Write the structure tokens for this entry.
Amino acid sequence: MSADVGSVDQQHNTSLLGSVRLIGGSVYGLIAWAVGFVGVAALFVDRAPDGALEFPQEDAQFLLDFFAWVFYSAHTVTMEVSGGGQSESWPLFEQFLIQDTLTFNAIPAVLLFVAGYVVAMRVPRTLTAVEGAVAGASVAIGYAVLTFVGVSYFAQTTAGVTYGPPMVDSMLYMGVGYPVVFGGLGGFLQGA
């Protein structure tokens, strides 16, 4: 009887591993990241106080970096300012007097939920709720890759001071936490 239980556990583990969607998770994770970036940036432009977005240097790269910081902040990642061997956190939303950040947090959460649901829905077999959660959480693959690349790409150095998202917090909250939780929840509900 114990041999039967062992084979059932092994089949269940194999089934869960088979629920990981490398291609679908990558594609839908990338899409959720890109659409979330645009949505959060648009909301920030709408919510920022008049005159707050007038920067001394408004080249395209600086603006791209800045709106990336807004996007990372929407995942509860506090920006970091470092220079001269010291670093400190820079709460971007507070700097721009934006109090209600729930909508900013909701945009990537909802997009990841939908992406996870779609990834689980596209699996060509019936999934249990747990298998659906694993399939949905696969969106972390694409989301984490862009998050990781973005940490270096969206750093801005001016006069020896570097502004940007910190690697550990970015990967923990944005690269893994948000997509696994919300993508997994979408997949779980699709499989349930």
